[in-house]
Amino acid sequence: MSSAELTDLLQIILLTVTTVAVMVTAGFKRDHGLINALTQTGLFASLFIFVIIEPVTPLQVTPLLIIDEYSLFFSALIIIGGIAVTAMAYPYFEKHHQYNEEFYLLVLCGTLGGVVMAASNHFVSFFIGMEMLGISLYALIAYPIHSPKPAKFPLEAAIKYLIMSGIASAVMLFGMALIYAMAGSFEFAKLAQAPSGIDAAYQPVLLVGYLMIIAGIAFKLSLVPFHMWTPDVYEGAPLPVTAFLATVSKAGMVAVALRLLLAAEAFNFGEVTVVLSLLAAASMIFGNLLALLQSNLKRLFAYSSIAHLGYLLVVVIAAAAVPDIVSIESMSYYMTAYFLMSLGGFAVLSALSNSNKELDSITDIQGLFWRNPWLATVMITVLLSLAGIPLTAGFIGKFYIFTTGVEGKLWFLLTVLIIGSSIGLYYYLRLIYTMLQEPHGTIANDPAAARLPVGLNVVMAAMTIAIIYLGVYPTPFIETLQSLASTF
Amino acid sequence: MILVWLMVILFAGGIGAWLAESRGAEHPRAVALAAILLDLFLVILMLVAPDTLGLGTADTVAQLGQQGEWLVLLQADWIPRFGVSFIFGADGLGLMLIALTVFLGLVSLGAAWGEIHERSGFFYFNLLWTLAGVIGVFTALDLFLFFFFWEVMLIPMYFIIAIWGHENKEYAAMKFFIFTQVSGLLMLLSILVLVYFHYDSTQQMTFSYFELLGTQLPDNISMWVMLGFFIAFATKLPAVPVHNWLPDAHSQAPTAGSVILAGILLKTGAYGLLRFTVPLFPAESVVFGPYAMTLGVISILYTAKVAFAQTDLKRLIAYTSVSHMGFVLLGIYAWNAQAVQGAVMTMLAHGFSAAALFMLAGGLQHRIHTRDMDKMGGLWGVAPQMAFMAMFFTVAAVGMPGLGNFVGEFLVLLGSFQVSHTITAFAALGLVVAAVYSLIVIQKVFFGKNVNNLKMADLSGMEFLCLALMMIGLIWMGMYPQTMLDMAQPTLQSLNIAFPG
User: Fold this and answer.
1) What digits encode the pLDDT tens for the residues B225-241?
2) Do A475 and B173 touch (CB under 8 A)?
3) Rounded (5°) CA angle A250-A256-A257
4) What is the ipTM of this complex?
5) Which of A406, A416, A426, A432 to mutate to test the interface with B (most CBs of B within 10 A)?
6) Cβ-defined contact of A414 to B188 (cutoff 8 Å)
7) How far apart are CA B483 and CA B46, in angstroms?
8) How do residues B13-55 score in pLDDT, each as one tens digit?
9) Spatial distance between the Cα atoms of A78 and A66, rounded to a whole number of angstroms
10) Rounded to two decimals, what is the model's pTM?
11) What CA–CA distance (Å, rounded) separates A41 from B142?
């Protein structure tokens, strides 16, 4: 292995080292603050390491991983997600839960899994990354299980996720096996030639392989009709884990899915486009419709994330008709916007909650604008951005989807997108309205009035500023994305 | 730069007002007043002495290859990736609408002065941001920028209705937002289709209004694209059948909110039709013209009849607004010099008369805590000044010769008569019906017996001043409309409207 390859792997190596260091330290000294700080340090170090890496040309490191701007960009997003979750977890568990050190170990493992997925262009690394993330998540969701008074129902959520995720992985593995049987390779790039190399009679096998993989991906991204687990798991999991689930696990999967579809030229099968379009349309409509009925904020965010991944899928589908770089650029922008919004929203909820009691009902945020203007401002920014109102990253994101959709002439999906966003407006606005209402009575020990931990404030401020900055002056960021897309 | 300053002052003033609240509940309104007065000063300077600001037809106009008279024009890059740039420009029409905006901003401040005491900082913040958004709409000449401001003016207005509104505010605010936003999304899609086809034929991605004029769209979709624009603007105008957010929003909004809604926000719809829909899609507009004019007439007659059936004073005035805006729609789609001049005059005059009527209705509600006309009566004796003002503005709205509204509606009818005799005949009926529903208001509220023995204070000095200013404005428009007609003339010429002689 050359030194250039080692340099490019530094990010993954550093994350691994941090994981081991956290494990060993926790074994000697159980100190929540220390472990939290160690985790943060490791994550920050691996975030900023790409100052050194900076790959001008993509570098294939071992057959399994490719390090290019695209992978580094998504790794950065994933690590930022890890940092935010770590910051949320400290106040959430401290004083309310014993033995919190392993939590960070799991977060690090999950983050590492996401980073591996972002850099994979091979079925093996894809699967390894996915399972590293998945297995960490089972444990993370169930983490407060021994707490005498868990806020939610971690065990139920964890079992649900375990079973459903297991099935999805199995389906996906079977799909990979079918494709391997036809193409004779696990490498994404070599799959493109597969259809021309095999007999016409076997083409359907290849297609079924792709569709099975898409089903697995759809499960992880919770696209309708593979979304059943999402609201329950979002609600049952402790809040920082819900944030992790909503951001890190989605970003890794989206990154690798687009790479697979583009590299393998899966869009040459018309059926793939049809199936993805149906998934997207169903997610946009049902995600938004079901979100209307929710009175629990975590469930509401679960359905709203289903809808948003439906929007995101529109640009992925557009890749069948538009140049790859346009699709990649749009997807990366929207994913970033989604990431910032989700983290901001969950940070506000987690500021109101701890591992014994989560304030996640809509009535809990009534009058928040008058109880704590700062929290409410963050939340309103996030909600306006989710609704796609100008001055926010969500608007430019939606604008990207619209332009890409128009370029790809996806009229049907764009119509559904408009209908879906219109429904979405209603529940986002209802939340804003609830926050603007008079607070009901005087709330004893109002958690919104309590002093917030610094880490959480930093996360919320960073997300709010980023949402507004990307909405007002996105040009520098767009240039980054264009360069990323051109070296894909 | 002056146009940007107008907005910056309001944006900054809004933030300042919000921050000033911590020093006392009365501070925000002082900050807001200062910001609006400063803006008003600049606008007046632009109108009477543009030389002092170094204005004049800018050289950049030639670069843009446009013949029209632009008093101010500014261009800078914003998001080059999409060909989005800052293009702000004001011509005669734009300048008049900006003046209307700032002036009615002052009036709404007067309306809020004695009414809003709770959370006043955030209120004035929203008020000023709405005004800034509206100025943006009237000056943006990049379609992306236009859409951006179109939405920016929406959110603060939503807050104004949702927080300081009356009993049914949640419903009203939500309806207002969803109607505007959904129709806005249709417009966004239309903008993008337009831009895409322009890109397809020229390989140049741009949202500039000047560049996009004259873009050829494929026949099978051009009508749909035009409709996307039309629906967004017709919703804001509003025209039947997308008008029914308006009575709720108006009746639930606080007085200042109603003043801004009726006086200014509705005009953005008319402005959009005039500036964007028709010029961007001339051929489609010719085909669509008769339908739009029919919609205009239906708006005039149907909402006049509905207005007559109301007992809620603010709802009644809201419906009459829809009726008057029907004339604007009719005038714009008749698309000849008289009709469009008439539409512009109606926009300005209705801005004054509707704002004044809402201010009076809001004042009444604030004093006697009801909008139900059946509970009122005999108020002339209690508040003679208020009654006089109400009488004046009602008569103005009806179209009394000598006042602005008459000039506008008369010109619209004159112009549309050349296009369609039948449609004009029906539209003229609107003037008759207007007299009926307006007089019933005066009858029920100010004449008759004061059965409930209502007592209330007459107009405050602030209210009187605002109303008197609007009164002078309407008389000016009625007596010497040439001032406004001259200002609008170059705009209309640049839009290729045929002028006789």
Assistant:
1) 999 999 999 999 888 88
2) no
3) 80
4) 0.84
5) A406
6) no
7) 15
8) 999 998 888 888 788 889 999 999 999 998 888 877 766 666 5
9) 17
10) 0.89
11) 46
